[in-house]
């Protein structure tokens, strides 16, 4: 999506200028993975309009391959606005009828998907339209692309589900249970499914082979296929804006997985990537150099030395 943000703090209706950026859960993950030194590509649809061209240019600048992105001549690029309100950020989505909402069960670039090590999707895509939900069902439940590790971030956005003919809780639970790796916030799991503890989420999502439960500034717990659980506390951060932190965490964790690091190191890399996102108003943060953060991936390395 294109993202518009007021150039100064305050409600949108009083702002005289807006900054143009690019955002979106899956593209944020792809860009952050590239920033951590991994090859990534983004598949999606944009409109044949200035916003679509900006999205492609920004992703390319982050090192993300966009060769297989489709351009829709009839539908616009999705848009959202970020409004600072009372110390928080309120999103306003304009995605109904967007180019991305026209994605369907015919998988884009199946040859590229088949050669990927990881294919990452989120519940935000499922919220865009019936055809987008069919796309994720084809990928996750029907396993139309054998081979890649299929990862799913629940990413519940209640505003996007208003007016949907299907309840978010049911759709997202079905998709999560079908994935190889699930990432979910403890707060969103509680809102969706009434769970209060990571162990309850694990029991609900079984047989998902691998699960990561994020608990904001407390830390993150992962459940491995052999039944073990690992918890790593989050570093202290002076938060500028929380938007994009979950996507950055997913990128950090996936980078650790691709590098075949131990489970605690994957969670630590997720925290460090999220920390970078929390200290900027951009949806895609500038990742710290690997030579600065890799020494912090060992157990018990002090967070106080984090860049």
UniProtKB/TrEMBL annotation:
It comes from the Bacteria. This is Sugar kinase. Residues 280-307 are annotated as: Disordered. It comes from Streptomyces bohaiensis. Residues 9-281 form the Carbohydrate kinase PfkB domain. Belongs to the carbohydrate kinase PfkB family. CDD domains: KdgK. Residues 283-294 have a biased composition (Basic and acidic residues). Coiled coil: none annotated. One of its GO terms (molecular function) is kinase activity. Keywords: ATP-binding, Kinase, Nucleotide-binding, Transferase. InterPro entries: PfkB_Carbo_kinase, PfkB_dom, Ribokinase-like. The keyword Transferase applies. Pfam families: PfkB (PF00294).
């Amino acid at each position: 999506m294109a993202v518009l943000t007021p150039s100064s703090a305050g409600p949108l209706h009083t702002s005289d200028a807006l900054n143009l950026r690019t955002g979106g859960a899956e593209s944020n993950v792809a860009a952050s993975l590239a920033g951590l030194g991994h090859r990534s590509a983004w598949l999606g649809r944009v409109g044949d309009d200035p916003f679509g061209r900006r999205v492609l240019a920004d992703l390319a600048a982050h090192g993300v391959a966009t060769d297989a992105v489709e351009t829709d001549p009839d539908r616009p690029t999705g848009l959202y606005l970020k409004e600072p309100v009372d110390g928080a950020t309120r999103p306003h989505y304009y995605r109904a009828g967007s180019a991305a909402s026209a994605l369907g069960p015919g998988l884009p670039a199946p040859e590229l998907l088949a050669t990927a090590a990881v294919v990452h999707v989120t519940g935000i895509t499922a919220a865009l339209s019936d055809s987008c939900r069919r796309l994720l069902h084809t990928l996750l439940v029907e396993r139309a692309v054998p081979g890649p590790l299929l990862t799913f971030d629940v990413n519940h956005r209640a505003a996007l589900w208003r007016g949907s003919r299907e309840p978010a809780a049911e759709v997202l639970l079905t998709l999560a249970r079908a994935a190889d790796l699930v990432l979910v916030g403890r707060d969103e799991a509680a809102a969706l499914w009434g769970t209060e503890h990571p162990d309850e989420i694990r029991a609900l999502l079984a047989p998902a082979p691998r699960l990561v439960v994020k608990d904001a500034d407390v830390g993150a717990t992962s459940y491995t296929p052999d039944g073990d659980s690992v918890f790593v506390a989050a570093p202290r951060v002076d938060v500028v804006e929380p938007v994009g932190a979950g996507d950055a965490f997913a990128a950090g964790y996936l980078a650790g997985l691709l590098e075949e690091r131990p489970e605690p190191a994957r969670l630590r890399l997720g925290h460090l990537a999220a920390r970078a996102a929390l200290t900027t108003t951009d949806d895609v943060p500038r990742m710290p150099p690997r030579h600065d953060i890799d020494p912090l991936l060992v157990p018990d390395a002090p967070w106080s030395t984090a860049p």
